[in-house]
Amino acid sequence: MKAYIFPGQGAQFVGMGKDLYENSPLAKELFEKANEIIGFRISDIMFSGTDEELKQTNVTQPAIFLHSVILAKVLGDDFQPNMVAGHSLGEFSALVAANALSFEDGLKLVIARANAMQKACELQPSTMAAILGLADEVVEQICAEVEEVVVPANYNCPGQLVISGTIEGIDKACEKLTAAGAKRALKLNVGGAFHSPLMEPAKVELQAAIEATAINAPVCPIYQNVNALPTSDPAVIKENLIAQLTGAVRWTQTATNMIADGGNDFVEVGPGNVLQGLVKKVSRDVQTSSAAIA
Which parts of the sequence belong to the Malonyl-CoA:ACP transacylase (MAT) domain (predicted)? Predict the structure, then answer.
């Protein structure tokens, strides 16, 4: 069974999507439509901007979304998913690719999400850290012992969990986790504590936008971040999308459940190949590849 997976923030690179724009009239049309909706030429930044420009949250999130979604659209009849999932931001790409959300509505939600997250980051200095080589339960336990806000945020694969919280909370947790035997406790270069209670202001802002957006039943089940379970119910999809900003990305559990449900051919749609590596850490037996136009 074919599982299509969509990457999140961090997968961006300068030049992303340029081949699509140059080789597909449909891609060109969609990029130009996106430039209009966004109000600046995001395609120029994607194709030939600087790393710095591409790293701005209000550029990064729509850029990754556009690369993923336009690639899925250009695949046309070759895009035949039995199941889909996306990592954090990638969940929005997955929903558009699976026809649950229109291209325009998906892009508008991603822009609203990026702006809301940016504002929440500015309200309180906060960060994230990758913890390598410890069992999830140990990381959860130590986070719970720290008195500051610090929570597990991204369950990426066995032995790799990203935590999120206040700067002080992350520093204390990293110290304790290193003492508990973590191979590495590495602070990440991110703007804030994504997927933590500190994103509550962003969640409130985004909730209104999500509730006002039409979401249809997707062409196949989507496995959502907050519970790693498949659904095709638009009401449940909305609820889980709203919970996603402050809830953890349960990617390890998502990949495990997709494989248990018959997913054995994972195709990553969008920039990079990070998700393929994470899926392989869950099971060496599945096939992984990157989507590409012929």
Answer: 5-293
Among 24, 43, 195, 196, which one carries the catalytic annotation? 195
- Active-site entry in 24, 43, 68, 88: 88
The angle subtended at Cα 152 by Cα 208 and Cα 166, nearest 5°, is 75
Contact assessment for residue 9 and residue 88, using Cβ atoms and an 8 Å cutoff: yes
Residue with tokens 């999507």: 17
**Predicted TM-score of the model (pTM):** 0.96
| CATH code where residue 261 lies | 3.40.366.10
Q: Closest Cα to residue 237, out of 110, 107, 91, 113?
A: 91
Is 149 in the same domain as 244? no
Active site residue 88: yes
Tell me whether residue 67 is one of the annotated catalytic residues.
no
Confidence of residue 58 (pLDDT cuts 50, 70, 90): confident
Task: For residues 8 and 90, state if they share a domain.
Answer: yes
